[in-house]
Design goal:
- This protein has one domain: ABC transporter involved in vitamin B12 uptake, BtuC (Orthogonal Bundle), CATH 1.10.3470.
- Helix content is about 75%, strand content about 0%.
- It is built from 13 helices and two strands.
- α2 packs antiparallel against α3.
- It is globular, with a radius of gyration of 19 Å.
- One of its GO terms (molecular function) is transmembrane transporter activity.
Length: about 300
């Protein structure tokens, strides 16, 4: 495998771990709900995935458990914000702190226990494409699902009645209600589904890449996901680009470290986050913002 293929092979799994929570946050924010607890959903998903896989020996059940755990965290946020009118930022941060503490306590007995990572599923013919074939088409099932998820979400939001209503909920909830949809139910459902996707991102980290549990192992992916959605102008294509940019920067840091190049370790650790945010900020300066009106109001109040 050439250097491009090796970089892609390293970049894609990390990109997918960010793509899931980013797409989940996109769905949630389209209805007007920002979830800073995405990091907590990822942590909960990672722990649940490892715990269930260790208990059953079945990684498929582990992935399902990760989605359920992530959804449960997000449902608490939706309950507080959508049904009780709590402050979105405060609720999300509280859920993150709570998840960080609970997963650290419950996950302590699992530290050092190894599970087999999700098996790679090689796609014949496509995996034989020189250079990029093995990197793109010799991955686990979560990676392949991510390939399909972004276009599926775009089609859903653009061409389905429910998707259009979901988008309109972040703009004109009264119009959505007059059209026969329940904005409250849409917001609650979108936030919960977003949490489930964040849980799958945690599963990709724990089961697809690492193969074990470590306290705080998501390393801020959930917060990066929120930033990616904002700077990608709330578009699925922008979210995909931002997530894969992060993965490439992460792979670049790994290559630098593996080759013993004299760069400070803390600088290397921050490289993927810095590169992703800088590029997305520059890109976001061009073109029309697709932010829901509720998000534009929230951002202007924050600034």
């Amino acid at each position: 495998m050439n250097i491009v293929g090796e970089t892609l092979a390293t970049a894609i799994p990390g990109s997918v771990a960010l793509l899931y929570p980013s797409l989940g946050e996109l769905i949630s924010e389209r209805t007007g709900v920002t979830n800073l607890g995405t990091e907590g959903s990822m942590l909960s998903g990672a722990l649940a995935g490892i715990a269930v896989t260790l208990a059953t020996g079945n990684p498929v059940l582990g992935v399902l458990a990760a989605a359920v755990a992530g959804a449960a965290c997000a449902a608490v946020h939706a309950l507080a914000v959508v049904l009780r009118g709590a402050n979105q930022l405060a609720s999300g941060l509280v859920i993150w702190f709570l998840a960080l503490g609970v997963t650290s306590v419950l996950g302590s007995p699992l530290n050092g226990k190894i599970v087999d990572p999700l098996p790679a599923l090689r796609i014949p013919v496509l995996a034989s494409i020189p250079g990029i074939g093995p990197a793109l088409f010799d991955q686990n099932a979560l990676v392949y699902a991510a390939y399909l998820l972004a276009p599926a979400i775009w089609l859903f939001l653009t061409y389905t009645r429910t998707g259009l209503a979901l988008r309109a909920t972040g703009e004109r909830p009264a119009v959505v209600f007059a059209g026969g949809h329940n904005p409250t139910a849409l917001r609650f459902s979108a936030t919960t589904v977003g949490g489930a996707l964040a849980g799958l991102g945690g599963a990709q980290l724990a089961l697809g890449i690492v193969g074990n549990w470590a306290n705080g192992m998501t390393n801020g992916y959930g917060f990066v996901a929120v930033a990616v959605v904002i700077f990608a102008r709330w578009t699925p294509l922008g979210v995909v680009a931002g997530s894969y940019l992060f993965g490439v920067a992460l792979a670049l840091a790994s290559v630098i470290q593996a080759n013993g190049i004299g760069v400070n370790q803390y600088l290397l650790d921050s490289l993927p986050y810095a590169v992703t945010i800088i590029v997305l900020v520059l890109v976001s300066r061009f073109g029309r913002s697709n932010a829901p009106e509720s998000q534009r109001d929230a951002l202007s109040e924050t600034v």
